[in-house]
Specification:
Elements (H helix, E strand, L loop, with lengths): L2 E12 L2 E12 L5 E6 H7 L8 E4 L4 E5 L1 E7 L14 H15 L3 H17 L2 E7 L4 H14 L2 E5 L1 E2 L15 H17 L5 E3 L2 E2 L7 H14 L4 E4 L3 H11 L3 H7 L8 E4 L5 H9 L3 E4 L1 H7 L6 H6 L3 E4 L11 H17 L7 H4 L8 H16 L14 E5 L17 H11 L5 E6 L2 E2 L12
Parallel strand pairs: 1-4, 1-5, 6-7, 7-8, 8-10, 9-11, 12-13, 13-14, 14-15
Antiparallel strand pairs: 1-2, 2-3, 5-16, 16-17, 17-18
The structure holds guanine and fe (iii) ion.
């Protein structure tokens, strides 16, 4: 056994269930897999084996252990425009801001600066797994995979495939479908050749408007041949939804499905315009949606019906959609997911009578949001994380709720109820509270991992 952590755990095994495990001991083997979780009191009485080999970490009572967060949708080459460029609709934002920046990230020298800056900042915020859209370049995509492996972040890394002569600029696209399929195959091989368990390739057609039919069909066959997962954008806005209807006379989901792209663990980003029939098809295929609530407020022209999707059996995780989403951390996406669902539920225009204004029953709470950010996202991606339980990987964060000068505080006699404590933690936590971050049992938070942990 390589690691033993004694702590109180807060986590969400199901969308409607908060679990608190008071003062438990978590044992982690050399591979980073959790082998036991036992009440500490049991261990004191019965276990005299103090395990001299184990790196034992005893978290103070003011610190809570939670599963690491899973970002199901993030664009690595958009990192330098994080927090900016949110004033245009999607179709103009892509051409005027985003494609030019992504093109710059095909330069290995610039990528060598951006990738570690981004991965370090995400790990420091508790994002232990991310599903990345990288660039069109095989070279800088492989560099991103190497960076994740080196800094210890679990990741799916996708070379972006895009070849449509109208949906992409001629200076940032695959030469044609054949070249795009070959480049995606080469990217898969290069990422697989890195070895290790943390980083995997993912087939990444950008979205239907950027891809020819030949490319979409070829990538569907590539997925079938290799078993590699798929990610793409789906039904993100009125414009994208309408585009698929114009081109195919079907929904985005049905069109992607005909190309063999809606498969187990396919990650469909946004999905704000999905019809119930689309949701049912996605559930049937064991695919799912990366819900990006902050980005959706700027680009999607609608709020994703998260409650309805869950009720229809669709896998749902959370995504930052950096940089369409202007914040890097998933904690704030949890808050945004709750806020967006509340706005959807009440409606927005007070001139309409209250009983006709909103989508009653659409609201989700912080427990459901955190579940999407952890277990829900892990299930969507098909990685064994998102919950601290035997057999899953020890990807976890330690949150100190007593950092001076921050709003996160559990007031004695007031914040007593565990549900209240949990909600306060998720809503108010920042990187300054994250004492430790582990991926597969390895400390990965460069800023504080070397600090002695007070006991
Ligand atoms: N659709 C196609 N590309 C993108 C992108 O980079 N961001 C978002 N939000 N939507 C897209
Ligand atoms: Fe996106």
């Amino acid at each position: 056994m390589s690691l033993r952590v004694r702590a109180t755990i807060m986590q969400t095994p199901a969308p409607d269930r908060l679990e608190v495990l008071d003062d438990v001991v978590v044992d982690v083997d050399d591979a980073g897999t959790i082998t036991a979780i036992r009440p500490a009191i049991e261990l004191d009485d019965t276990d005299t084996d103090t395990d001299a080999d184990a790196d034992t970490v005893v978290l103070p009572a003011s610190t809570v252990l939670l599963p690491g967060l899973v970002d199901c949708h993030i664009h690595a080459p958009q990192w330098p425009q994080l927090g900016t460029g949110l004033d245009l609709p999607l179709e103009r934002w892509l051409f005027e801001y985003t494609f030019p920046l992504e093109h710059r990230l095909t330069d290995p020298a610039f990528a060598a600066e951006v990738w570690p800056h981004m991965v370090g900042a995400l790990l420091a915020r508790g994002t232990t797994t991310a599903s990345y859209f990288a660039t069109v370049s095989v070279e800088t995509t492989t560099m991103l995979a190497e960076t994740c492996a080196r800094l210890g972040q679990r990741a799916l890394v996708g070379r972006v495939a895009m070849d449509h002569p109208e949906g992409t600029p001629d200076w940032y696209r695959d030469a044609d479908a054949t070249a795009g399929i070959a480049a995606s195959r080469r990217s898969i091989d290069e990422i697989n050749a890195l070895g290790g368990d943390l980083v995997r390739p993912v087939i990444t057609p950008r979205f239907i408007p950027a891809c020819t039919d030949e490319l979409l069909a070829g990538l569907g066959r590539l997925a079938e041949d290799t078993g590699v997962r798929i990610q793409t954008h789906c039904s993100e806005s009125d414009w994208q939804h309408g585009y698929a209807v114009d081109r195919y006379g079907t929904s985005d989901t049905e069109a992607l499905d005909r190309f063999g792209l809606v498969r187990p663990h396919t990650i469909l980003a946004h999905g704000t315009h999905l019809a119930d029939s689309d949701l049912d098809l996605i559930a049937h295929r064991h695919a799912g949606v990366a819900h990006c609530p902050l980005s959706n407020a700027y680009f999607a022209s609608a709020v994703f019906p998260a409650r309805r999707a869950l009720d229809r059996g669709v896998a749902v995780g959370l995504g930052t959609d950096v940089a369409g989403g202007g914040r890097p951390d998933l904690w704030s996406q949890c808050v945004d997911a709750v806020t967006a669902s509340r706005i959807r539920s009440t409606g927005v225009d007070a001139r309409i009578p209250a009983d006709q204004r909103g989508d009653a029953g659409a609201a989700i709470d912080i427990v459901t949001a955190f579940w999407m950010a952890t277990k829900g996202g892990a299930d969507l991606l098909g990685v064994p994380v998102g919950l601290l339980e035997v057999g899953r990987s020890f990807d976890a964060v330690a949150v100190d709720v007593t950092v001076p000068g921050t709003p996160l505080r559990w007031w004695p006699g007031i914040d007593v109820d565990p549900a209240r404590r949990f909600e306060k933690l998720v809503r108010l936590v920042g990187p300054e509270h994250l004492r430790r971050v582990w991926v597969a049992g390895r400390p990965v938070n460069g800023i504080v991992a070397s600090d002695p942990v007070p006991s």
